[in-house]
Structure formats: structure tokens, C-alpha cells
Amino acid sequence: MKRYTSSIIKLTVFIVAAVIVYVCTPHTREPVKITDVPAGKGFSVVEDKIPLYDGLGDDAKVVRYLAFGEKIFPKMQSELFYQLKLGKDEEGKPIFGYVKKRGILIYNPKKKHVALTFDDGPGQATTPIVLEALKKYNCRATFFVVGRMLDNRGMNLLRREVAQGCEIGNHSYSHPLFTDLKKRDVNKQLDRTDRLIYNAIGTTPKICRAPYGGFNKMVLNAMKRPNIYWSVDTLDWKTKSSKKTFKAVKKNVKDGAIVLMHDIHMPTAKAAGSICRFLKKDFETVTVTELASIQGRKLIGGRNYAYIEKENTKNAKYK
Known about the structure:
This protein is α/β, with parallel strands linked by helices. Helices cover about 35% and strands about 20% of the residues. The protein has two domains: about 35-105, SH3 Domains (SH3 type barrels); about 110-305, TIM Barrel, CATH 3.20.20. The chain contains nine helices and 17 strands. It starts with a helix and ends in a 14-residue tail after the last strand.
């Protein structure tokens, strides 16, 4: 027992001594490396709000919050932050602010922007083909998923979609026509799929799409989120033709368009590559939320959106 007690005492003394040495030893933090931001890029806030700090230290204070869709023009950056010029002090020296890169979308302001959307999946044989096409041409899309498709393999595909930067939307559990249901049944459809999506990726969708595009005031109120309709209907579910699906996109796509397709059909999956290749020349293909941010449009819950046009006024403040 005495030997055990002696060991405890020695260990305690060692730990206390180590703590004292650590506390008394000066510690220096490596300076933050600041580099130039590449020219020709656009930067848009893609979250509801993100803080703008007055410095990079632990005691940095929030100057204000940047809003969704707000544009910034950083000239310098660190590994985790963008540096923004806020103005000048009384001596004429520049005042800088700092915003975390997470929550800031980088885009090409010289190109048009379009949101490709895929409904009713994920499909085991078809969705991977769509994802490969998106990856090959550096495109992102929005997948409006049906809950009954989310078995273990479906959830794995969901994780893959998110890993590639795509967005997930709620498209009901069993794909009924919402306008034929009571509000509580619409809620059940959405809630059940929300839970499955959360179990797969740790978040719930911020946007929905009513099955068959059928909605009314009751449905929008039940969603409490934006309902995303479409401006380009490829009719891929009807034609089951890769060529006709491609031609529908080519003929009708324009800046701010939302394109409807279904990733459960093989002809659509096979058309994804040619569609992405065609769009790459003049467009960036982004998610619905990214499109709204680029266009400077905040998506409001309980409203329907078929097309997202660019806001006329410039809301950039910090350069």
C-alpha cells in the first residue's frame, strides 16, 4: 500500500511540474500567411448570414453580419479567411475586416448560371452515371429525393451527392400529389423524408419540390420552405430519349433557369454528360441555393420559384 501511495505522489508531482513548465514557457504563434486572391472571380454569401470580424486574433470582434447573396471583393486571403477593405481610419490608413471562407461561394461572374435539378431518385443504376458526368465537367446539381428510395444504398448515393458539392431537396416520401392530401399528411410526407435525409448526411433540406409540380397555398404553408418549380421541362420522363432531353436543354436554357430532369431514367443519365459539356461553354451549373445567391435573391419559405432572375441593384459593400 505504501509503495502504491508513493507512486501516486510521484506521478502527481511530475504532472504539476510539467504544467508549471508549460505555463511559464513563452509560446509564439506563427504569423498568418496572407496571399493575393486570384483575379476574375466572383464571391457571394451562400449562407443566411456570416460574421465579418475586425481581426484574426482570439479577441476579434464582429463588425456586422453579411447577408445571403451579398457580394464581396477580397484582394487578399489567408488559409481560412478573406481580407476585405472596410474603409480608412482618421490617419488615412486602411481598415480591414475578415470573413471565413466557409459560407462564401466562388463563381465566374462572366458566365451565365443555371441549376440542373434531378427528381425521384436516387436510382441505383442511374444516379452514379449522372454523378460521374457532373464530376467530369466540374458541375453541381440539386437532387430532389424521394424518401422511399433511401435504403442503405440510396443513403450512400446521397452522401456521394453531397461530397460532390450537390444540394439535396425534399421531394416527399412516396410521391403523392400533395394537393389531394390534407395538410397533416403533407407534413408527414415531408417529415419522414427529412428524418431519412438527416440520418444520411446530418442536415435537413432547406428546399422542397412538390411531386408532379402540384402545389397550392396549403402545400406551400405546410412546406415552410421554398418550393422549387422549373423553367425548363425536358419531359425526359415522357420521351425517354437522351437526344430529346439534350435538345430541350439546349433550346430553352438561359441565365437563371431551373432545369427539370429525373435521375431514375437511363436515357436521362446518359444525356447528363452531353448536357454538362454543352453548358460548360457559356454557363456554370450550380445548385439552386447557389444560383439564388449568385443572382442576389433570397429564397423565402412558403413561396414558389420557377426561375431565378438576377437582382437589378448591386448589393456589394466591401471591396
